[in-house]
């Protein structure tokens, strides 16, 4: 049974992410996204409730999309040393910094 309230779109592609305005961006991968959240695969070992700024390119808009997300869950298994994170979408604005 799917508990999602908004449809999920599979979207396999790279994203840039960081955990703070003063942090450098890392590279991760997006596997799916909806209007309320996303599934990210990141090389960093991050805790539940960690805040992320995620930047992705859309095939529909040439400008990068900035999103704030909060990690709500983590997968048990890793994929090629990447951790899977279920994230809640918070806002669409870049962090200042």
UniProtKB/TrEMBL annotation:
Q: Which SUPFAM superfamilies did the record assign? A: PilZ domain-like (SSF141371)
Q: Which Pfam families match?
A: PilZ (PF07238)
- TM stretches of this protein: none
- Entry's Gene Ontology molecular function annotations: cyclic-di-GMP binding
PilZ domain spans which residues?
2-90
Q: Which domain of life is it from?
A: Bacteria
Q: What is this protein called?
A: PilZ domain-containing protein
* InterPro entries to which the protein is assigned, alphabetical: PilZ_domain
- Tell me which species this is from: Thiolapillus brandeum
């Amino acid at each position: 049974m799917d508990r999602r309230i908004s449809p999920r779109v599979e979207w396999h592609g790279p994203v840039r992410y960081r955990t703070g305005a003063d942090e450098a961006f890392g590279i991760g991968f997006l596997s799916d996204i909806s209007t309320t959240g996303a599934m990210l695969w990141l090389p960093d070992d991050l805790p539940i409730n960690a805040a992320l700024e995620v930047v992705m390119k859309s095939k529909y808009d040439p400008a990068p999309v900035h999103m704030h997300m909060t990690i709500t869950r983590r997968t048990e298994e890793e994929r090629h040393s990447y951790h899977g994170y279920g994230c809640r979408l918070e806002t669409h604005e870049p962090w200042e910094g």
